[in-house]
Amino acid sequence: MDKRPLVYAPRAQRDLQELEKRYALQILADLEILESPPWPSGKVKKLRGQEFWEIKTGDFRTLFWPHGKKVVILRVVNRRDLEGAIDRIDVRALVRWFWEEHRT
C-alpha cells in the first residue's frame, strides 16, 4: 500500500512547537497513522459539514485535510478550542499556500 506524505501547514508547525515536548511527540507518533489508510474510526473522523478531518490524541485534536495523495496537517489544538480553530481556518489562503508550496 502506498504511503501518503504528511505536509505540515505553517500554523500546525507553530502549534506543535508551542506544546510541551511529551505532547508533541505523542501527537507526531499518532499522525503516522495517517500515512496508511484506511484510518481507525475511533481515532480519526471526518468533521460534519467540513472538508476537514480530526485525529484524537489525549486532550488534543489535530485538524487535517486529505488532498490527493497527501495529508495536510492544518492545526493542533486542545479539544476545548476545536470549534474556534475550525472557524478561523482561511480555506482560500490554505489552498493558495498548498499550491504554491506543493506543485506536484
Nearest-angstrom radius of gyration?
13 Å
- Helix/sheet category: alpha+beta
Overall 3D form: globular
Low-confidence stretches: none
**Overall pLDDT:** 92
Which structural traits does this protein have?
4 helices, alpha+beta, 104 residues, five-stranded mixed sheet
Note down, in words, how this protein is organized.
This protein has 104 residues and is an alpha+beta fold. 36% of the residues lie in helices and 27% in strands. It has four helices and five strands; from the N terminus they run E-H-H-E-E-E-E-H-H. The chain has a five-stranded mixed β-sheet. The mean pLDDT is 92.
Describe the structure concisely for a colleague.
The protein has 104 residues and is of the alpha+beta class. The chain contains 4 helices and 5 strands, in the order βααββββαα. Strand 4 and strand 5 (70-78) form a beta hairpin.
Question: Topology of this structure?
Answer:
Elements: E1 6-8, H1 10-18, H2 21-31, E2 44-46, E3 53-57, E4 60-67, E5 70-78, H3 82-87, H4 91-101
Parallel strand pairs: 1-5
Antiparallel strand pairs: 2-3, 3-4, 4-5
